[in-house]
Inverse folding.
């Protein structure tokens, strides 16, 4: 079941590799970035290729996810410090 987490990055990387040459972009670069960072490069790519609304949606979702993870980790650290663990 561990492979399920790789489906989205692989799908995004494949999309970027296939679509990048159509817009004069380097498919290797966008494929690697898409695999490792997933939604941020996809959003930036979409913005650069003229699909600005979809691109900004992915960028905002990525940023909000990072903020949410940071807040949850901070709350967990504060909670465990308050109970003395």
């Amino acid at each position: 079941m561990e492979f399920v987490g790789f489906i989205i990055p692989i799908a995004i990387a494949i999309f970027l590799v296939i679509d990048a040459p159509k817009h004069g972009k380097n498919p290797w670069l966008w494929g690697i970035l898409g695999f490792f960072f997933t939604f941020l490069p996809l959003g930036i790519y979409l913005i650069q290729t003229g699909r600005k609304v979809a691109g900004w949606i992915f960028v905002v979702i990525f940023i909000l996810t990072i903020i949410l993870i940071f807040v949850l980790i901070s709350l967990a650290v504060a909670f465990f410090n308050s109970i003395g663990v």
Observations:
- Residues 52-82 form the longest helix (31 residues).
